[in-house]
Amino acid sequence: xxxxxxxxxxxxxxxxxxxxxxxxxxxxxxxxxxxxxxxxxxxxxxxxxxxxxxxxxxxxxxxxxxxxxxxxxxxxxxxxxxxxxxxxxxxxxxxxxxxxxxxxxxxxxxxxxxxxxxxxxxxxxxxxxxxxxxxxxxxxxxxxxxxxxxxxxxxxxxxxxxxxxxxxxxxxxxxx
Length: 176
What we know:
Blueprint: H1 6-18, H2 24-50, H3 55-65, E1 71-72, H4 74-81, H5 85-97, E2 101-105, E3 113-117, H6 119-140, H7 145-169
Antiparallel strand pairs: 1-3, 2-3
Helix pairs in contact: 1-2, 3-5, 4-5
Organism: Tenebrionibacter intestinalis
InterPro entries: HTH_MarR-typ, Tscrpt_reg_MarR-type_CS, WH-like_DNA-bd_sf, WH_DNA-bd_sf
Pfam family, one: MarR
């Protein structure tokens, strides 16, 4: 049975057959990771859409729920989501419109605003999490415990290398 990755793999094999210096395995592994990431997102977005939410809003709710008092400053939410402050404001607007969060002034500094997860937000999360957990368990059940641990170690090793490369490889020549 062909997988959704087969056309990409065939193209890479063809290129490798024509270019002796083509780093086939490295490109294959990179493309596999990218393809899998896309499939994971696609699967997750379909599931979230069926529950009336998207990945960004969901991650914002999870971020809030994971805080000590279920509260966070908009700038902290922006950092946690890896988005701009402007986008974090749009996200907060949508969450507030749905009644899942509320904006409150800080007890210590009235200039400081906090986003608080509401009871309705908690209830929504408790409704959407079980189907997501089931789906993730179904996905990862295809790997043994040992394979999951190996994949985690390998993925962390590659991520550390990417972080290292990001710091050194793409700096302007003047800063080196």
